[in-house]
């Protein structure tokens, strides 16, 4: 498993200047034609979202008062509860509004036909399955990888690739207030 702390990941500005992205993982690494990608985005102002044709996306509010995503004729959705995922097609041209100011979201993207993703809020141990990729992002409390791995707190987590050796043990909660987002990224073929 690969450990990360969002605050130490380099931030890249969006093309439209409306926010910044901190990439957790992109596989295969270093290519625009990713199979799957996980990042944390800071959305600083209202504006358009970039389209990603052929990609399915899942956004989950992490901090802030929320973000309203609209696509005329498709949906108008306010993401106002932290830890509640919302999936949509990356083919759509979306607009984002920030009714309460800047916010932070977890962004999972998978190439349609190659991967699928399921994002769930969890409070119990998570054991990644062999052949699957994924991300565990800590929302609150303390978590630990295996029996002697580092203790993870809010904004930290782990990711693994489908080609990685199956992790030994699970990622386990250590405190009663422990909550995390688990993105299980599954190959389709």
UniProtKB/TrEMBL annotation:
Residues 1-25 are annotated as: Disordered. InterPro entries: RmlC-like_jellyroll, RmlC_Cupin_sf, Uncharacterised_HutD/Ves. This is HutD family protein. Transmembrane segments: none annotated. It comes from Streptomyces melanogenes. It comes from the Bacteria.
């Amino acid at each position: 498993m690969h450990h990360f702390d969002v605050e130490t990941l380099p931030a890249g500005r969006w093309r439209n200047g409306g926010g910044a992205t901190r990439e957790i993982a992109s596989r295969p690494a270093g290519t625009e034609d990713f199979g799957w990608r996980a990042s944390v985005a800071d959305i600083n102002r209202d504006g358009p979202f970039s389209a990603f044709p052929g990609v399915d996306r899942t956004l989950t509010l992490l901090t802030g008062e929320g973000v309203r995503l609209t696509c005329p004729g498709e949906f108008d959705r306010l993401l106002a509860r932290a830890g509640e995922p919302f999936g949509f097609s990356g083919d759509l041209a979306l607009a984002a509004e920030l009714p309460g100011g800047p916010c932070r979201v977890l962004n999972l993207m998978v190439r349609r036909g190659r991967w699928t993703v399921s994002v769930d809020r969890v409070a119990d141990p998570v054991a990644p399955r062999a052949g699957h990729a994924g991300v565990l992002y800590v929302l609150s409390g303390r978590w630990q990888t295996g029996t002697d791995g580092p203790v993870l707190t809010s904004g930290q987590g782990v990711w693994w690739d489908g080609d990685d050796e199956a992790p030994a043990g699970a990622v386990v909660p250590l405190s009663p207030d422990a909550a995390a987002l688990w993105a299980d990224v599954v190959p389709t073929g």
